[in-house]
Amino acid sequence: MDPSGFELLQTAVLLLDESERIVQANSAAEELLGVSRRILIGHPVDVYLGSLTSVLKTPLSGQPWAWLVEIPVHQAARFEDQQQALAGQAAQRETLRNLAHEIRNPLTGLRVAAQLLDMELPRGDLRDYTRVIIEEADRLANLVARLVSPQHQAIEPQCFNVHEICERALALVELEFGRRLTLVRDYDTSVPDIVADRDGLLQALLNVVRNGAQALTETADLDSPVLQLRTRIVHQPVLLHTPHRMGLMITVADNGPGVPAALQDKLFHPLVTGRAQGTGLGLNLAQACLQLHGGVLEFDSRPGRTEFRLLLPLETV
Ligand SMILES: Nc1ncnc2c1ncn2[C@@H]1O[C@H](COP(=O)(O)OP(=O)(O)OP(=O)(O)O)[C@@H](O)[C@H]1O
Ligand SMILES: [Mg+2]
Questions:
Q1: Which domain holds residue 23?
Q2: Do 27 and 85 fall within a single domain?
Q3: Could you say which of 76, 108, 137 is where a domain stops?
Q4: Using a 6 Å CB cutoff, which residues line ligand 1?
Q5: Which of 9, 23, 275, 310 could, after both became Cys, cross-link 250 (CB 3.0–4.6 A)?
Q6: Residue 281 class from Cβ within 10 Å (0-12 exposed, 13-18 middle, 19+ buried)?
Q7: Could you report the per-residue pLDDT of 89-99, keeping only the tens digit for each?
Q8: What's the whole-model pTM score?
């Protein structure tokens, strides 16, 4: 392995020795940690990483270094910023959930009244109006149901193989998008079964996978759209400030246009959407579900290469 190649990466990379002291750091790492290489080298890595929510640590064998540490670009914000962002998202979710509750009852009333009126109306052309009311009420009810969803589904942890939900999500995408894109599987079959809320995680994965498929199929003139699903074990990840011995990473990658730059900073906020028909809840709900499991949802995106990563703890230290 030639560490000079790391200079080209946007991802911050550190190489550590057996005692987890920094031996090499690329420019992205210097920039991200706000410390020059000269100072970083020789220091224990923990001093610098304790404040980040997600760090990937891979053991190296047959190399002069013991560990390779990667810090995704968007994890660059300092601990305080991330805490604030998470707290802000939780507060927004709470406000929206309360609002959704307020909307739910009158909406049901409106729909029932429109149905009764529909039955009483003598003329078919008048019933077109009541049907519009009913259809739009149903659309709103769907939105409301999604807004109130996470806290209202009782979480039932089950033991299952993660590839089951990967296959399920891909099957659903295949049904919806058919042959308009190529689906690629890159599974690590040694990933152990996980104990988690199966339906919740399937929904979270599906939200991410559907976004990828939508980005690929809604873009005109895209040559060979490919959606890839990858599973890997990650060693010693730090997730939501908690170190774990092992973690699971599900990566959903696409070669579509990328997340619009204007959305990137607030992508996980509720109601943030770049699509005309989008509600902007998919990623917010997926993030909430992962956090409930002690994990995180993160992404890197540029035109031609977008990656969403679902990271979950497998074992706590
Ligand atoms: N793989 C991707 N490539 C490009 N843009 C993406 C990708 N994934 C998400 N986005 C952008 O992020 C926005 C927010 O996604 P999110 O899933 O939260 O909401 P949505 O898809 O708009 O609506 P819905 O609530 O129906 O999922 C999308 O509208 C899209 O603009
Ligand atoms: Mg979506």
A1: 3-76
A2: no
A3: 76
A4: 207, 211-212, 215, 254, 256, 258-260, 263, 267, 272-275, 278-284, 306
A5: 310
A6: buried
A7: 777 778 888 88
A8: 0.72
